[in-house]
Amino acid sequence: MDKICILDMGSQYTHLIARRIRELGVYSEILPNNISIDELKRHRPIGIILSGGPSSVYEEDSPQLTKDFFKLTKIDKIPVLGICYGLHLIIHHLGGKIKPFTKKEYGKTELEIIKPGKLLESLNNRETVWMSHGDQVENMPEGFEIIARTATCPIAAYANEDLKLFGVQFHPEVVHTQSGTKILKNFIENIVHAKKEWNLENWIENSIENIKKEVGPKNRVILGLSGGVDSSVVAILLQKAIGNRLHSIFVNNGVLRKNEEIQVVRTFEQDLNFENFHYVNAEDLFLERLENIDDPEEKRRIIGHTFIEVFENKTIELEKVYPDIKYLAQGTIYPDRVETSATSNASVKIKSHHNLTLPDDMMLKIIEPLKELYKDEVRKIGLQLGLPENIVFRHPFPGPGLAVRIIGPIEKKKLDILRDADEILIEEIRKAKIYDNVWQAFCVFLPLKTVGIMGDYRTYEYICAIRVVESLDAMTANFAKLDWELLEKISTRIINEVKGINRVVYDISHKPPSTIEYE
Ligand code: XMP
Q1: What is the dotted CATH code of the domain comprising 200-392?
Q2: Which end of the chain has less Cβ packing within 10 Å, N or C?
Q3: Residue 138 parent element (H or E)
Q4: Could you tell me which CATH number the domain at 411-506 has?
Q5: Going by CA atoms, what residue is nearest to atom 4 of ligand 1?
Q6: What is the number of other CB atoms lying within 10 angstroms of the CB of residue 485?
Q7: Is 3.40.50.880 the CATH number for 3-191?
Q8: What string of DSSP letters covers 365-416?
Q9: Which range (121-125, 165-169, 184-188, 199-203) has the least confidence?
Q10: Whole-prediction pTM
Q11: Which protein residues are within 6 Å of ligand 1, measured from CB?
């Protein structure tokens, strides 16, 4: 299959570039910027994109291209598109000059197209683009032509059609660049001439065939099913491939949302007819171990370890009856596995809770059917496989669940209060038809008591914080500017209907500097 390779120079948008290319029907992969030429060749890229990045080309330790990079692209005629820092790198390596700027240009700018060529074909003369840079190209080696400029950036895009080297100072991958997708499409269609072979129907068929082949006619597979979209899609793929030789284990860890366990059991056992679906209620064990624990990392550790213990015990029990259990399936997706320089911290944190590592002596082989996919691709596949929309489009929910949404020690009483408040919030957000437009909406229990008045009585109860954020990938997030009337309805309902809460506050913090979750 034709593949575009993206060399990661540290941009927060690197995954976004890969997603956009795939949305255009061409398979793309992210590779580290220090990859050797031999390794890069093994990937057989039909086109290469150099991502942006926070560095300056003259800085010590800034990402550079390997010595023979341009030899490879010249001999094999592989087109290259440099974005932002990537555009600087091409010029820097081929003998041009980059002018360092300490002041950053950030935000929307008007681009004037001077000579569209193949890259900027069929764009307007003037286009809005998204800039985020300090340095600029000052002069270029022979053979390079300026194809667009802005008021402050005279070389905002260039082309060297002979060598098939192109560069844009702005970010075509972000939605704020009006014709960004068209530019990437031009690169793929007019310059790379890539075949559009990346489509999800083929993917499903191939994946089922591959699972069948890998697992063989007799072996059984065990899966930790959380009810989230990733593990649910893995479950359905496996069910289609090996039927009842899939054993799914769903653990109630005591920190789930209201009625979550009932919904998951109903969906898989009744609606989707899963035969070997095992529900393990370990609520008491988890809550006992979490008693009096207020440190967030300690909560995470306890939940993670207890989960592995419960899962392992159930697996051992099943292995006695089914000695053919030989595989452990996981819902790892592409961004979990491929850490770009910019996402590494965040994904390490998320990953440590998603991917359970069972002891080596269990000798289970790992199978990860979604390891090449992005979340939106997993969702599309989920829909095609008949997974209900309420699972496919469900907001992300942290592995340690409500434990990180109750500040301080966890108690059953606080969990119940939080579950009731959260249910009301989600109900109202759905009624207002904004559930699918926001990244996450949830309540947080603040263990602070304040005074209130209900009828003739003075109350002294807890505070509930509401957090609703918009985001593309959880790396950055904005609080959602919800309607006052909607917030009023939510607050009134929570205070009237949830015993234990007499005050509701709305969180108006962006990420960064605040995180999405509270702990
Ligand atoms: P933060 O709070 O770091 O969250 O802004 C970013 C995204 O990650 C989710 N999150 C977690 N997911 N285990 C998880 O599986 C965790 O410990 C965890 N902490 C945060 C969070 O819900 C958000 O979508």
Answers
A1: 3.40.50.620
A2: N
A3: strand 136-139
A4: 3.30.300.10
A5: 516
A6: 9
A7: yes
A8: EEE-TTTT--HHHHHHHHHHTT--HHHHTPPP--TTGGGGGBSSS--HHHHH
A9: 199-203
A10: 0.86
A11: 300, 350, 353-354, 396, 398-400, 440, 474, 511, 515-517
